[in-house]
């Protein structure tokens, strides 16, 4: 009788545990059941909503979670971050590797399945960060003055709270990914995650590594990348390259004198009018403009011009606005005043991101994706000017050294026709870490065709280029992007 009773109690306890587990699995009120503009069943389950990262301020970060079309219970969970700073991760969802391609129409855009979505092989969380970006917002507007350290802490808080809501994915391999200014977001957030693991934060994230595409990393390396890139791509002559190299002594990020400044101005003039996000694509110059507030920057004026990307379905121009490098004059934790933040205004042309803007500002769409209405969260913009952002963290190289030295996997990839954050800078700083080369520079292939080049280093660090791609690699080369993404996540040879 005791054995039967004990067995009953054991079974009851197991069932109770299962009930508790499933009660805390993906919330029903977060399910996205349909999307305006798309006909038919969604290719996998979608969830969306808010995570509060500061109760006192009412600071809420918005996420859109797409389950893998393959095996969501085992496939990696990848957090995706777009850059800016100030750009929504719906940039990645709408224009790069989300489950749909968006077709412009006279009314609401039509959605078509994307055969090269990254959700073919992984679960992806698209996060709008920091508060004030995309659908994320705060009830305390002082939160819209922010900086690197605060952004990383908020994103880490988001992850801990998010995995409490979705505990069934805690055992999945977890990666952090992003592009452009997310070259700052990703390593800093990764570092916070690792610190949290060391400190015993709950829940315990199964963090495996990170990837950065055309990401900023270091003011000197990135600042020195343009001139060699422009010369290698045939945008400036041998004579000018020799002159500017001699005058600047190879230091283009911080001109040493007037002669160096003069030679750099000639480089600026020659690359003026070229689409900096893909030098092969035409550049659009329109009447529309947006004022973006920047801390003082040494960035060449040519870096601030925006271009157009032509694709079969979406037609738009992109606006990242706040390009690297920033020369911050504040210490971590210091809150600058509004007058300080409004010192430097840069007028940025080509801000027509109509497809995403129309779709995400439609109230039916916002209701379907559980985003608060415009009256609460504000208008959606690809890159907002309501966030006043300071880059105070400096070089990311120490973060990369710390993470890779501890064995976390890192993939640094670059579209080789991007002039905003040229591959020449990323190649140089990855080499500067001094790690042993374990996979010497070689081609990598998709369907038997050369798709770029790769160099593998000790400590699980990989540098990879994508041939013919611009700043947002999956937008320009979706098939190739899915190929290297899948192989790298699986730990296969690229």
Give a written overview of the molecule.
- The chain has 494 residues and is α/β, with parallel strands linked by helices.
- Among the domains are: 28-220 and 394-489, Rossmann fold (3-Layer(aba) Sandwich), CATH 3.40.50; 236-271.
- Helix content is 32%, strand content 22%.
- The chain has 16 helices and 20 strands.
- It has helices at residues 2-23, 90-96, 148-165, 182-199, 219-223, 226-232, 238-248, 258-271, 338-341, 354-360, 363-368, 374-377, 397-405, 423-432, 473-476, 478-489; strands spanning 31-32, 46-54, 59-66, 77-81, 100-103, 110-113, 123-127, 137-138, 145-147, 174-179, 207-213, 289-294, 308-310, 315-317, 344-349, 388-390, 409-415, 437-446, 449-457, 461-466.
- Strands 1, 2, 3, 4, 7, 8, 10, 11, 17, 18, 19 and 20 form a twelve-stranded mixed sheet that branches. Strands 5-6 form a two-stranded antiparallel sheet.
- Strand 5 (100-103) and strand 6 form a beta hairpin.
- Helix 3 crosses helix 4 (182-199), helix 4 packs across helix 13 and helix 7 (238-248) packs antiparallel against helix 8 (258-271).
- The termini are far apart.
- Residues 1-23 and 285-352 have low confidence and may be disordered.
